[in-house]
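Researcher: Re-running this chain for the archive, since the previous output was lost when a drive failed. Same request as before.
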Amino acid sequence: MNPPSNSSPAVPVLRRSPEPADSVVWEPSERWVRGRKGEVTVVDSRRPILVWEPGRPVPLYAFPHDDVRTDLLRKAERPATRRHAGATLFYDLEVDGETIHSAAWTYPGEELAGHISFEWFGRDVLDHWYEEEEEIFVHPRDPHKRVDAVPSTRHVQVRIDGSLVADTHRPILLFETHLPVRYYIPREDVRLDLLTPADHETRCPYKGVATEYWSWEGNDPLTNIVWSYPDPLPAVSNIKNLVAFYNEAVDLIVDGEHLERPVTEFIKPPKQ
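Model: Regenerated structure tokens:
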């Protein structure tokens, strides 16, 4: 059967995709953002903008000059010119006798003129960042990204090296934009005795601080592949103390179907 004819102009149908790889993209934010180094507030802004640099999946903030303690900034003696696309001028930050090199920079062009951006992920530039009264970690939250922790009755099993490590009918499925689904499992349904506690910690702007990790020490050891959030952020409070596995490193069977292992930046595929 042929579809009905339509005399109106054709509308392109496109799959949503990342921004062009060579673009710096920005938009205003209405969040009150503050950044501190020790006891010194370096940034205090109610008019920040979010900036997405080429090749970076997460945003940074940039702030009007008037909202930054520019008296603490000095033109960088050793600018990190290749660290941020299009950055034209880098600044060192001097606070309480400590100097953090290339801690801040400016972008070119009229639209971003008069704004200063600070390093976040991968470097300890400022000690604490806040959106409103809530501390955030790693990078600003992306307004185009969702994180939903949804109760489920799916049958989820986890196997490592053939051993059944978890088996549950009451998981919490955590859906995070552009990432694999993570299956959070009650501890009673996990064989933690088959895992080894690991001294590791990670931070997430959407979930909080994961302070509990475990490793697998079988024939093919896997380090820090299991984690838990003892005190997650309120938006995902129902994953508290539940246990999740890296889909990338284990065998996940959901409702009898073996899931394909995804490839992500978080963990290298195990040796075959």
